[in-house]
Amino acid sequence: MYKILEAKELTSNIFSMVVEAKRVAKACEPGQFVIVRTNGDSERIPLTICDYDREKGTVTIVFQAVGAGTEIMAHLKEGDFFHDFVGPLGCPSDLVKEEISELKKKKILFVAGGVGTAPVYPQVKWLHERGVEADVIVGAKTKELLILEEEMNAVAGNLYVTTDDGSYGRSGMVTQTISDLVGEGKAYDLCIAIGPMIMMKFVCRLTKELNIPTVVSLNPIMVDGTGMCGACRVTVGGKVKFACVDGPEFDGHQVNFDEAMQRQQIYKTAEGRAALAVKEGDTHHGGCGNCGGND
Ligand code: NAD
Ligand code: FES
To answer: Does the CB atom of residue 227 touch ligand 2 within 6 A?
Structure first.
């Protein structure tokens, strides 16, 4: 059992929790994720790690209440427990494997969209702690939906906040700010974009034109998180990959986003999973007892 030490609503329907999970805190790196279950028989929910404290043995998760599982999670309070808190899962960000001297030579731009700001934060913080200052664009639909601004401001080289409706910071979507910054003479060697799939698709379309290598973090539907069920299958560079073990980070210019978005929709229904089973062959499409799929 994993105790919730802190639970708060960051903004409408977006929650942050600090969880006591010593082994995860000891081993995790930026870019990795955990799978949580509130009870022994509840849905498995994959969540990117927003922060961790190795000394205190804590991990911070941020999530939006969008379905039954996250809605139940949203009602948990300080002192409650998660039944499972499995991780760290997935590969750490490539950044943590690079020489710091090499990273210091690079101009890095992070693009964070909505709840995707949470997984961007540990990467920017990790770089900042090693003397690498990255530019960060954070986009939200409205001022009210903006999260982690103060925290990000403390670790970003330059922080550019933009809202779709212009209610705070710059006006427009994150792609507008990328174009503006490049138009103002900024040059970047690497872009890391994390947010909704549609945002990552359009960021990649733009950065391809601008010739900026781009990494994205994919969050397709996941079930086991260990490469066995096939739920998180994506196509990258024409090859089948599983986001939970091969990712979640991939070369954004190689990702087939249209297929990933279509698959995410199809996977929600039993008919859809059955259709995928016919199309994709012997990777698992349900029947595990967790996703409600066919046997
Ligand atoms: P949102 O819809 O509010 O979008 C956030 C920002 O993305 C917008 O403000 C805008 O700047 C940009 N954006 C959106 N559509 C765009 C487009 N067509 N072109 C260019 N920019 C665009 O985001 P949200 O509601 O917080 O997102 C929730 C989604 O994010 C969920 O689907 C969730 O699964 C996903 N998510 C992904 C990750 C990840 O690791 N990739 C992490 C957390 C959440
Ligand atoms: Fe990736 Fe099952 S969640 S293979």
So the answer is: yes
Give how far the C-alpha of residue 215 lies from the chain's centroid of Cα atoms, to the nearest Å. Answer: 12
In our burial notation (b when 16+ CB lie closer than 10 A, e otherwise), range 248-277 reads bbbebbebebeebbebbebbeeeebbeebb
Global pTM?
0.90
What single-letter amino acid sits at 216? V
Q: Which pLDDT tens digit goes with each residue over 44-66?
A: 899 989 999 999 999 999 999 88
Q: Do 88 and 29 form a contact (C-beta atoms < 8 A)?
A: yes
Rounded to 5°, angle at Cα 105 from 98 and 51: 50
% residues pLDDT > 90 (the chain): 78
Site of tokens 């205190």: 56
d(CA 29, CA 25): 9
Give me the pLDDT at residue 100, please. 96
Q: Which protein residues touch ligand 1 with a CB less than 6 Å away?
A: 48, 113-116, 119, 139-141, 164, 173-175, 194-196, 198-199, 202, 217, 219
Q: Higher confidence at residue 294 or residue 77?
A: 77
Q: Which two tokens stand for residue 175?
A: 């792609």
Do the Cβ atoms of 110 and 252 come closer than 8 Å?
no
